[in-house]
Design goal:
It is a single chain. This protein is of the alpha+beta class. The chain contains 9 helices and 20 strands. It folds into 4 domains: about 1-40, no CATH class; about 40-140, no CATH class; about 140-290, Jelly Rolls, CATH 2.60.120; about 290-445, Sandwich (Jelly Rolls), CATH 2.60.120.230. The strands form 4 sheets. Strands 1, 3, 7, 8, 10, 11, 13, 16 and 20 form a 9-stranded mixed beta sheet that branches. It has a 5-stranded antiparallel beta sheet with strand order 5-2-9-4-6, with helices on one face. The chain starts with a helix and ends with a strand. It binds heme C.
């Protein structure tokens, strides 16, 4: 009897979608009466704060998404497709699997927010009083102190459609080591900028990058996976919707005198005419930090140097996996920022594959057999390369392994488009170009 009652009770709870804590019954009663009597959601009071926090970073006039949601008229005109995109969970785009970990600046909707948008878009979609709008606290731009804004010397008009990847070399005229402690990319032509990745080029690699730049007659040079030199260090990335990042307090990435920066721009002009773009990178800098950070590039060195990442022609699920305990090699892996044999913390994670990538994950495998998931992306898209800042850092102890796993579809279904045509099916291996693949993890790490 007790059990039967308990399951009846939990069925009610499930049906009305709230969880029961202390005072659960009272909460249910309150929720039931609120549901029965509350007015339907309005644009200004209920929907606009959600749209402002979760949609407008892309859906704004001249923005990257196909229509704006700046006003009631904009939103109400698209309410049928809003309802289906929200119901199917295709919008807002938020690639990480939420059961893996929790992140800062999470763009996904809570269940309550989804229900509000759905109730509004599938109902009468009333406007409500403009005075009832309260701007949301969430979704606000990251508070960055801008110490330096950098960008290409002149605007660039994309010359290759639909996708062009272009690297711009930027001088770094500092006489002392500076630490990047945060960054934000402000796209120039927001309609066509799909991603921007900021790399640092160490003094010994500057000549190689300069050669690539000089060999290409237009501004910058063509580049796909990376700026084309092995030693390029990842500083940060931007995809539409990102509001920038400030690194954990008192940590930063060192840039030594004599370095250069390279900003890789990905332009997508599939649905928009090419226009001049001069995007800027705003950097927050410090002369000193308490703890130097490194962006660790995690991959199997044998894939890179011996070409052992063999993806057979036609294989629809080629799995590439690598795990290794790194703590005895940290000086090398971090370019000297971290020490060997000590624990270190992972604060953010990113994944990088090319067009045939389907899904991938990054885990920490602790010596006691437990695993912590840092990032898992189940439906990889090259167009959404983001960096995800963990709510809580993961501690990696000596003996723990870092593990990366990538799945590739090398059947006819997922070949990259080259010159307007799908590439022919053939064996694929590690490399820089659209035709090659990568399986790379990136971690912001400190001791
Ligand atoms: C990070 C950028 C971004 C954010 C944030 C975003 N969208 Fe989109 N949205 C897009 C892009 C880009 C498209 C075009 C289709 C595509 O490329 O997937 C799109 C398309 C759509 C469409 C057209 C139908 C479809 O699925 O293609 C609807 C409706 C939509 N978005 C609703 C929303 C709503 C509602 C929100 C907020 C809850 C939202 N979007 C947040 C980028 C974004």
């Amino acid at each position: 009897m007790l059990n039967a009652r308990a399951s009846y009770y939990s069925a009610i709870v499930r049906a009305i979608g709230i969880s029961v804590g202390i005072g659960g019954l009272a909460a249910i009663a309150a929720a039931c009466s609120a549901q029965a009597h509350s007015a339907p959601p309005t644009w200004n009071h209920d929907v606009r704060p959600i749209v402002s926090a979760k949609c407008q970073s892309c859906h704004t006039q001249g923005g990257f998404a196909p229509f704006p949601m700046d006003s009631y008229a904009d939103a109400v005109a698209h309410r049928a497709s809003i309802a289906s995109a929200v119901a199917n969970r295709t919008m807002p785009p938020w690639p990480p699997n939420d059961s893996c970990n929790t992140y800062q600046h999470d763009r996904s909707l809570s269940e309550a927010q989804r229900n509000t948008l759905l109730a509004w878009a599938t109902g009468e979609a009333p406007e409500g009083s403009p005075a009832s709008y309260v701007p949301p606290a969430e979704g606000a731009a990251v508070a960055l102190k801008i110490d330096r804004s950098i960008g290409a010397a002149a605007p660039y008009v994309p010359a290759i459609s639909p996708d062009e990847y272009r690297c711009f070399v930027i001088d770094w005229n500092e006489t002392n080591t500076k630490y990047v402690t945060g960054l934000r990319v402000t796209p120039g032509a927001i309609s066509e900028v799909h991603h921007a990745i900021v790399f640092q080029i160490a003094p010994q690699d500057v000549a190689a990058v300069q050669k690539l730049d000089d060999a290409d007659p237009a501004a910058g040079y063509s580049c796909f996976g990376t700026p084309g030199v092995d030693g390029a260090g990842w500083v940060g990335a931007w995809v539409p919707g990102s509001t920038g990042e400030v690194f954990p307090a008192d940590t930063g990435i060192a840039i030594v005198p004599g370095s250069k920066l390279v900003v890789q721009m990905h332009y997508n002009t599939a649905n928009t005419p090419p226009v001049p773009d001069r995007s800027t990178v705003d950097l927050q800098l410090a002369d000193t930090v308490k703890t130097e950070a490194a962006v660790l590039k995690w991959t199997n060195p044998s894939w890179v140097f011996n070409h052992t990442m063999s993806i057979a022609a036609g294989d629809a699920d080629s799995v590439q996996q690598f795990s290794f305990a790194p703590t005895n090699f940290m000086v090398k892996a971090s370019g000297g920022a971290l020490k060997n044999g000590l624990p270190f913390s992972i604060w953010s994670a990113a994944l990088h594959m090319h067009a045939r990538g389907v899904k991938a994950s990054l885990h920490v495998e602790h010596a006691d057999g437990t695993r912590e998931c840092a990032l898992q992306i189940d439906d990889w898209s090259f167009h959404w390369q983001g960096t995800y800042a963990l709510q809580k850092p993961i501690l990696v102890q000596p003996g723990d392994k870092l593990s990366i796993e990538c799945h590739f579809d090398n059947s006819g279904k997922r070949q990259p488009t080259i010159g307007g045509q799908g590439a022919p099916v053939g064996p694929v291996n590690w490399g820089e170009t659209t035709e090659d693949e990568m399986c790379l993890g990136l971690f912001y790490a400190t001791q």
